[in-house]
Predict the 3D structure of the following.
Amino acid sequence: MKPFYITTPIYYVNGRPHIGHAYTTFAADTLARYWRQRGHEVVFLCGTDENSQKNVEAAHKEGERDIQKFVDRMSAVWQETWDSLGISHDVFVRTTSPEHKKAVTALAAKVWEAGDIYKGVYEGLYCVGCEAFLTDSDLENGLCSIHRLPPKPIKEENYFFRLSKYRGRLLDHIEAHPKFIQPESRRNELTHYIANAMADISITRQSAEWGIPLPQDSSQAIYVWFDALINYLTGVGYGSDEKRFKKTWPADLHLVGKDIIKFHCALWPAMLISVGLPLPERVFAHGYFTVNGQKMGKSAGNDIDPTALAKEWGIDALRYFLLREIPFGEDGDFSLERFKERYEGDLANGLGNFAARVLAMTEKYLDGRVPEVVSAPVEDLWTAFNDAVEKLAFDEALRLIWLRIGECDRLINTEEPWVLAKTDKTRLERVLYILLENLRQVSLMLWPIMPETSEQILARLGVLAIEKSEPLSERRVWGGLKPGTKVKKGDILFPKKS
Ligand SMILES: [Zn+2]
């Protein structure tokens, strides 16, 4: 069976990861875990984009003359960050690696053979921040609308890619594959761009001191986006392991920010069609990230370090907050105040308190033993939960789980097990089984999103998050919690902070 292949963008190494990068990477990690938990083989790719002029400028700014040394050091920072945040990627691509360079050279040669590269003169405006040539629609008062900086006027002889040749093919593909570009707003934007504005694009830079040389004219370096997009092929064996590549490509899902959707849904598929490779199934763009209502960035001085937050509050709390607070695909705001509110309300007083109460009552009244199975008194949540995750509505998926936690809290308050312990042992056992089994169900569901917390709760219930011998489709059935299992209360999951 073809593995589920999911990617994040590969990031420039001119700075350190901020919370916006962590947000995308947590979302990808959640989907990778979701499919693994359901028994699928998964390939989850992350990486660093190292051939950019932005990286050269950042190295110079630090007084580093050896650019390779600089990108080596910075790429390690990104890898360490993802490791410290528990990201479960299978592949980490570096675009200065020999395998990637070889793959880019091979792919450029194929595009050349297809007759899709020609020499021309580029005259126009270039934004180094975007690593892109700007058109009128990208400008506001003469400045790049994203970076608020004046672009550089450039006139030079370049090689161009016949992007416009693929206009019809791209539009046909988008129409025939409604899931190819999501959400819908981005799909409409891209359709409009491809139909009306998309033009041939310069894919080399003259006399660039850094980058992969064009094999047919080594005085020119390949444009960083043309190079970077190919990482999605390199990471699964293109040009080095054909068997692995054939098994894994195309990608099932590219997660991207909405600022780079044009590259992923116009240039990238056109490159793939040019060399005869299948297109990715789905490209999903999330929105912009603001901090306290302000656009985040190094220059604004408000970029938030995800590792510091995770250290203080826990990785899972951060994952929960980001995926619960911001509907994936829309713009979202990060504020520490809002984070603390959700930590206290949803995690400490919500999930954490629910787990602690149920386990403590079982210890106290039933000597820690799971009572006899009670037939399902509640609606099965799994179908709705799975649908939400698969359409990347993580906020909705979490809302469903928390609705169930709320119902369980109400059951505790109306049944009053502490009273039943004295008056009606049979009813007490029934109520506690319903609560314990619900705790098992929501903890299993939560694993892709909050793996550590899920594993902790499940361990207290004597259950594993993944059982190799038993598929989730069987484990999710009501009544899976075995009578007689010894449970334990354990430590507080989300300690309150003063
Ligand atoms: Zn820009």
Remarks:
- Residues 127, 129-130, 144, 146-147 surround zinc ion (CB under 6 Å).
- The mean pLDDT is 95.
- The CA atoms of residues 203 and 226 lie 6 Å apart.
- The two ends are 50 Å apart (CA to CA).
